[in-house]
Structure formats: structure tokens, C-alpha cells
Amino acid sequence: MLPTKKIFQKIIEGDEVCTVELCRECLSNGYDAMEILEKSMIPAMDQCGVLLTNRKSFIPQVLMSTRAMQAGIEVLKPYLSQQENKLMISETVIIGTVMGDVHTIGKNLVSIMLESVGTTVIDLGANISGKEFIDAITKYQARFVMMSAMLTSAMVSMRKIVKEIKDHEFGWDVVIIIGGVMVTLAFAKEIGVEYAENAIIGMEKILKIHD
Amino acid sequence: MVGRIKYNVMNDTELSFLKSEIERLLIERGIHLEHDEMLSDLAELGCQVDMETKDLKFTKELIDKAVKAIPEKFTLYSPSGTRDLDFPNPDGGFYSRTNTGAPNYRDIKGNTHYTTLEEVEEWYKLTNAMENIDFVTLPSTSGEYVPGDAVDVYTLEKALKHSAKHIWIQPYESDNVQYLIDMSAAAVGGLEELQKKPIVSFIACSVPCMTYKHMDAEILYRCAKSGIPVQPCSLPTAGANTPVTAQGTAFIACAEIMAMIVMLELLHPGLPVIATPLLFSMDMMTTYTLQSNTEITIARLIAMELFENGYNIRAHSYGTGTDSMEMDAQNFIERTNLTDSMAMSAASILGGAGQLETAKTISPLQLIIDNEIFGIAQRLRRGLDVNIETIDSEEIFACLDKDPTFSYLMSPHTNRHFMEPHRPDMFNRDGAVNWETDGCKSLTDKALEKFHIIMNAEDTYELSADKMAEVKKVLKLANEALVK
Ligand code: B12
């Protein structure tokens, strides 16, 4: 089996140790870092995405795969050109559960999924006010904000917080994605934001918009 | 004998292992409690408290003292006085309650939307008429119909006005707790009356692992101060915020509840408490929270056994419900599976009547059918006596059946017992011809008929006008203070 194919396989299996070893082996055998990335890693993650979307693999398996891939990328980084490394700079996402709501499980899941694909996540926690969101967006110059609400009563504060963020002048565009058990596409449309039904779709949305 | 069928899911070694691990957790790791007043009171009572980090640890002596203080017998009273619930249940049966907190209502036409206050009234009219539903909860209204900061207060007003049965209250915000207590007190003529005959009890929820947010601590504290019964809950999600194994999830939920019970009994020795582990699991493929996973059902039984048999504390969990969106076959398989398992556990209360979609939706038709299912489950728990009269051996030994004129239909034994078999109200017990003549009605059709009969009849209960006026006064104060 081609070494690049082996790396692909080990990422799918979530084998971090082997992935790292194989990456090192390939580099010492003269493989180009970008080639490894393009031929093994990106296709492996695409495959994981397909398996997840088609309900053919479990979340922990995918998380192990992404962990293996991140470890492999760390090995490749010094061999990538400045230009190529720039592509690897991650997006920063601010996430939090809105004021009046303490539910965190869904939000945490979104964070874990995003971090697993290399996104920098600033998790503000639960019960977060508009000001706290705005301060974090400013501080981290973030383009993405994700909000969770699990209570119908918290949707009132979600609406308010979204308005506060939209009314604020950051100097760049901020994309807001909302989710949570009571939040619907119709509600998202009404308050003029993006909606993701679950953590997987949320992660995919970020990746898509980032592209 | 009544209440005889109960099966154990743990052996003695497992039960004592679980108990000792729970106590070790409370002693060695302790809890995180976000409530300064309560922390200092508990420090004075002997708990080891760090006011800075808000961490608290118990001692074995305190745990034992608290467990001893739990009343063996107590009553949850009903506003009407006709449905008081004595614990332990004198018949050995279980009590049942409706689903709490679901934001959506699926009306009889099948439309699903946020619950309106009119639908809350409809709900209580139905629950008043359901003979197998023993107490009620607050359906969740939404910010669309009542002020978002006070949905619990507005819903409670309707409950106090209409419910003939005991009310279990789920608060939404810290500041609302005292108003919910005051409102309940107003409905019975004052706090003293409420303490004597609590027509309400409260939900307080831990946040796994071992954390108590201010609101829930406030509920525990206010209820302890006011002498109002609490049914402390833990809602862990296996694999998300507790171990992925159902047993590990039961362990944490029970420990969290045990901590709440110990705190309540230290603050108010003798306060009626009911341990309420409401376990969930996360589906590792779709990430959604599930209620009806099979292992989680067993874990509920573990938790029931731990409290009821291990500590002689009354215990309560989901007794019905589904992850299905519809009243379809999955729904009925999941809910009867759970109801029957729980009916045969040591549980004192089976909850969740009327719920669909993992506690996010309630349906009046499902409630009417759950009333039927609980009736069957109650009968299952009662079991059957085996003795000379029930096996009817005398007639057989006497060879009565050899007499050509003998028929069991006419036998004295039949005459004594023919009324005993449980006959669900709405089930088809007829032949094909009659069934067709009657319009080929399904169970849901009959539930709909029953719905209309109940809704067209006079309600059996309404709080007196003078008491209602007092309730309204508190509602007004709450509205002024809470609605921003
Ligand atoms: C666990 C739980 C709790 C735990 C939360 C623990 C924690 N650390 O989060 C505790 C016990 C603390 C709790 C408290 C309360 N809860 Co609660 N809780 C639940 C429960 C059972 C599961 C929620 C959950 O975590 N699911 C697991 C995650 C993975 O699923 P999820 O959050 O839906 O997330 C998925 C999607 O929604 C999405 N998603 C979520 N957030 C985001 C964000 C983004 C950006 C994106 C893209 C996607 C996304 O992705 C996830 C899937 O991949 C639900 C019932 C249910 N069926 O959902 C009730 C539920 C949400 N709670 C409810 C209530 C009423 C409360 C309380 C008010 C009650 C009380 N007195 O205790 C308090 C809240 C107090 C407050 N002010 O916030 C009601 C809500 C009703 C309503 N009207 O809105 C529900 C429906 C249950 C019920 N019937 O009572 N709860």
C-alpha cells in the first residue's frame, strides 16, 4: 500500500501514533508535505465527514480521526511553505449559551467538533450577555459567533443579543450561527442569522463559510 | 397481596458497592454549590466548606444523620383534598404524574406549537379527569404568550386555579422561586397552611457533575426554609456530561441527588423528599439526547433500587415517554416497555405522562392513552395471589367439571371473581363485525372521543374566588418584579 494511502487508513482508524510515525517516514523518504496533506489527510477527513453524515460512524470515532489528523499536521507544518502554512491558520469562533440559559451540552459538543477540525474556539460558557459576546468578538477579532438556547424563554434573550451584536460596529462582518433544541430555521430567519440543526451541521457550516 | 411484583436489577454486593461509592464521592470529592447563604448555613451545620471556591464536602456522620431525618411517612396533598398522596403508597402501587417542562403542545388536530395558556387550562381539565394520573406538573408556556421572564409563574397561576391534584413545580429562574412559593401559599391561605398541607412540591436540578447552580440551590434553600417538599432531580446525559455507561450515569445522578437530600435534611430535618433521577443518554451517532435507550431504562431501575431498597428513600423517575416524534409504533413500544419495567421496579412514582419527542412535546391524546397504560401497569404491579381460593383447586378436586351441567361460567367461583380482570377503557374487546359497525375505531380515535367527552363536561374543580384573588395579587407582584 502506498504510504499516503496508509496515512489515509490510519486517520480513518483514528490511530494517532501510527499517523505521526507514517508522516515522519514519508517526509524522510522525500515526500512533499503538501502532497501528504492533499493525498492522505484531506481525503481522510472528507471520508470521515461522509461517514458521519451518512450515520455510518460514531462521533468518538470521528473525533479520534480528527485528533490523528491534527497530530499529523503538526509533523508536516515545518515542511510547508509560508504560503501553505497560511492556509492552515484557523478561524476563531466565539461560542456561548445565551443569557438566562444554563444548558451547555449541545454547545460543548459544537466546540469539540470545531476544535477537532482545528478551529480556535473561545467558549464563553453559559448565561452570556450581549456585552460579553461583543467584548469577545472584539478581543479575538472573530468573524464567527455561535449561540445556543435550549429554553423558549431564552430565545427572547437570544433575539436581544443578536440585535446588540448586529447594531455594533466591529469594522468587519460577523456571521452568527444559532442552534439549540428550541431554535428553528424560521426563528433564525426572523432574527436574520444562520441556523444549524445540530453540532455536525454547525461545524460543516463554519468550514463551508471559511472556505 | 398488593405491590408484590418487583424485580431487582442489582445483587446485594452491587447495591452496597454503589452506596459506598456514592458516599465516598460526597465525602472525598464533594460538590460545588453556588449559593453563599446556603454554604455558610451548611458550614455551621458541620459541612466542610470553602467559601472562596464554593466547594463543599460532607462527612459520613452528616450523611447518616440526614438519612435518619428523612420522614418514613409523609403526604403530598391535593388542592381539592380528594387526591392526597400518602407515602409509602398504602396499596404498594406507584403514583404517576404528567410530563414537566415540554415547550410544545400537539393539539388534537396534530398541529405542534408552543403551548398557550388556554392549552394549559385544557391540560388540567384533562388531568383532573384521568383516574390513573395522581399529580401534575407545569406544561411550559413560552415567551410568545406570557412574559418570557415569568413563564413558570404564569403557568403556576393556571395550575393553582384548575388542578384538583398535587402540583410539582419546575422553576425557570432564581428570582422566580420565592414568588412560586408565595403564590402556592396564597392558594391555601398562607405559608403555615402550605407547610401543614403542601399542595405543591418543587424540582431542583443538579448540573452534572456535582454542581448546583444558584437557581437550584435557591430552590433547595427556600424550600428547606419554608418546609416545602422537594423532589430533587438529576438529568445527566450519558456520554455527554456523565460516563457513557448507563451504570456510571446512574452513579453520578444518584450521588447528586443524595447530596441534595443530605443538604435538605440538614437544613430542615424531617422535610419530605423524593429522589428523582431522570436519566438520558446521548446517541453517539446523531448526537441527540435520548430518553428511551434500553440500558438507560435499566439504569433507572438501578437508581430506583438504590434509593428505595438501599436507603428507604422514596424514588421517582420517568415511567413513560419516547424519543419518537409521532404517536407511532416506536412510541408505543418505547413507552410500554419503560412503564412496565418501572412498574415492576421499586419506584414510588412513574412520570412523564403525555410526552413525546424526548420530553419536548406533550399531547392530550397521548395523555389519555397513558392514563390507560398506567392502569395496566398498576395492575401488573399488584400481581396475583396464589392460594386455595385463587387457584380454585377445590372445584377441580371435587370434579365439578365432570358434571355435564357444570359450566365455569356459572360456577360460584366465577361469580366471586369475574369482575377482577383489568379492562382498559378504550381497548377493543369486541369482534370484527361490531368493530366495523362502530366505525373501525383505533385507540387514538377512542382517545379523541374521550377528549371531547371530558372537554364538554363540567370541570370538577376550580379554586375558590377569594383564594384566586390572593394568587392574582402575588402574580401581579411577581410580574412587576420579574418582567424586565
Ligand atoms: C440535560 C438537560 C438539562 C441539564 C443541563 C445540563 C447541562 N450541563 O447542560 C439541567 C438539569 C441543568 C437542565 C436545567 C434546566 N432545564 Co433542561 N434539559 C435537559 C435535557 C434533558 C437535555 C438537553 C441536552 O443537553 N441535550 C444534549 C444535547 C447534545 O442536545 P442539544 O442541546 O439539543 O444540542 C443539539 C442541537 O440542539 C444542537 N445545538 C445545541 N446548541 C447549539 C448551538 C449551536 C451554535 C449549534 C450550531 C447547534 C446547537 O446541536 C446538538 C446536537 O448535535 C432537555 C430535554 C431534551 N429533550 O432536550 C431538557 C430541557 C431543554 N430543559 C428544560 C427546562 C425547562 C430546564 C429548566 C428550566 C428546568 C429546571 N428547573 O431545572 C432548567 C434550566 C434553567 C436555566 N435557566 O437555564 C426544558 C425546556 C423547556 C422550555 N420551555 O424551553 C427541556 C426541553 C426538558 C423539559 N421537558 O423540561 N436541563
Automatic annotation (TrEMBL), chain A:
PANTHER family, per the entry: METHIONINE SYNTHASE
Extract one GO BP annotation from the record.
tetrahydrofolate metabolic process
Keywords associated with the record: Cobalt, Metal-binding
- What SMART domains does the record tag this protein with? B12-binding_2
Where is the B12-binding N-terminal domain positioned along the sequence?
1-88
Every copy of the B12-binding domain together lies at 90-211
Supply the PROSITE patterns for this chain: B12_BINDING, B12_BINDING_NTER
Q: What does the entry list under GO cellular component?
A: cytosol
InterPro entries linked to this entry: Cbl-bd_cap (IPR003759), Cobalamin-bd (IPR006158), Cobalamin-bd_sf (IPR036724), Met_Synthase/Corrinoid (IPR050554), Meth_synthase_dom (IPR036594)
Q: What is this protein called?
A: Cobalamin-binding protein
* GO-annotated molecular function: cobalamin binding; metal ion binding; methionine synthase activity
Pfam families, A to Z = B12-binding, B12-binding_2
Q: What's the superkingdom here? A: Bacteria
From TrEMBL, chain B:
Q: Which terms under GO biological process does the entry name?
A: methanogenesis; methylation
Q: Which Gene3D superfamilies match?
A: Trimethylamine methyltransferase-like (3.20.20.480)
Keywords from the UniProt entry = Methyltransferase, Transferase
Pfam families (UniProt xref): MTTB
An MF annotation (GO) of this entry: methyltransferase activity
Similarity comment: family membership: Belongs to the trimethylamine methyltransferase family.
Full protein name: Trimethylamine methyltransferase
Q: Which organism is it from?
A: Acetobacterium bakii
